[in-house]
Amino acid sequence: MxxxxxxxxxxxxxxxxxxxxxxxxxxxxxxxxxxYVYNKASDDSYLKYKPTAEGVPSDSPITEDMVAWxxxxxxxxxxxxxxxxxxxxxxxxxxxxxxxxxxxxxxxxRNAPDFTDDYSILYGHHxxxxxxxxxLDAFLxxxxxxxxxxxxxxxxxxxxxxxxxxIFASMQVDAYxxxxxxxxxxxxxxxxxxxDASALNSSVPKGERIVVxxxxxxxxxxxxxxxxxxxxxxxx
Length: 236
What we know:
This protein is of the alpha+beta class. It has helices at residues 2-41, 142-147, 186-196, and strands at 66-72, 78-82, 105-107, 119-123, 150-155, 161-174, 199-200, 209-216, 223-232. It has an 8-stranded mixed barrel. A hairpin with a 5-residue loop joins strand 5 and strand 6 (161-174).
């Protein structure tokens, strides 16, 4: 009987050691995964391919799905804008066409790639340290919104057309069934924004069209954070 309990103790100790090793591996994988996602989101190698007035550099590895370039002052937002055949393509694909959990900033597949629609929708993951669209949270604060309201949109690849952006409103919405996540008319969009905005800066001059920046409001929720910008055909 004593030998039996000795063997049971040995088996128990080995099982506990094995469980410890498995738990350690899970923790290490979690740390590696977090580092990997952050590292990919922090990759700014594409900045050297940012368009000039002449267009995108001829040696750019950014795929032909690039339709624009978005930059927002005083944030980390300075990214190529992609557009796939549907809204799943660039969720986990970077601007080089490679798999990446941080994905890309991308234009809704239902929108015109030249941003001539009344209401265009851009999506991006909410990443830590303000990467991708992680810096949009700040725009929910009205005081911040009033002081940080400028951006640029460079449209097309070859003959670049530059637009100014005027950031004028923000809100949180439900991801499912909310009209703000569907293309609509300018008038319809303005009615919703003026009625439901969490923060609104009416001093920003009205533009001819609207582009909305959309990201997750919080992890594991259906809430979306939206930041609305006027598109100006000329400097305002």
